[in-house]
Design goal:
This protein is an alpha/beta fold. The chain is built from six helices and nine strands; from the N terminus they run ββαβαββββαβαβαα. Helix 3 crosses helix 4.
Length: about 220
């Protein structure tokens, strides 16, 4: 695919989706204002085409992270706690607090929080702990909650957003709810189809961005 023009798999006003390996597609896309994504964690989770093997994980992820930083003014991504040993040059680390939920066990610890790595400066003032319950599986094994992604988007730029590990499309749905432009890339076609279905079913949210901020202050 390198050296060739890439064709969107799906598009609607403000939203574009590409199906393929993000490492191949990214060089063909224009720069964006924010990368917001939930990458594979290297925990041997079976996503289908992508097996998310821990073998060689950091050897490909860290160079790709640098590509993302070259492609956007701000990069924000979730990960597991062990990533704090590998990702070292971030500007800030926020926390996704997951009440009454546990991530993958680390030794004897049953963590119910995840780090949110941040490169760049947010546009708005914000606390750095984001408290949101986990999302139920939607055909994808580990979707992020839409309220979490909306919350992060509210803090950062209102320009174009890119999610290179789109999964079932949560970032794109959140962007659509907020009237933002967004690009998604996903290697597994079945997740692309789930994302498209979600986008087609999406209607204007009951909460305006202002009422959503008030809701978050009550958490």
């Amino acid at each position: 695919m390198r050296g060739e023009e890439v064709t969107p798999y799906y598009s609607e006003p403000g939203i574009t989706i590409y199906h393929g390996d993000c490492r191949d597609i990214l060089p063909h896309l224009p720069k964006v204002d924010l990368v917001l994504t939930d990458p594979p964690y290297g925990i041997n989770l079976d996503y289908g085409i992508c097996k998310d093997s821990e073998d060689g994980y950091w050897e490909w992820f860290l160079p790709f992270l640098q590509q993302l930083r070259n492609h956007s003014a701000a990069v924000v991504f979730t990960h597991r706690q062990n990533a704090l040993r590998k990702v070292t040059d971030y500007d800030w680390v926020a926390v996704w607090n997951k009440p009454m939920a546990f991530g993958h066990r680390i030794g004897k610890w049953l963590p119910h929080w995840e780090p949110i790595f941040i490169y760049g400066v947010p546009n708005n003032f914000s606390f750095d702990v984001f408290t949101h319950t986990t999302a139920k599986p939607d055909g994808h094994p580990s979707p992020k909650p839409i309220k979490l992604m909306r919350h992060i988007l509210e803090v950062f730029s209102d320009g174009t957003i890119l999610d290179p590990f789109m999964g079932s499309g949560t970032t794109l749905v959140a962007a659509k709810q907020l009237g933002r432009r967004a690009i998604g890339i996903e290697i597994e076609e079945k997740y692309v189809k789930i994302a498209i279905d979600r986008l087609r079913q999406e209607v204007l949210p009951l909460n305006t961005p202002e009422s959503y901020k008030e809701e978050q202050m009550e958490l």
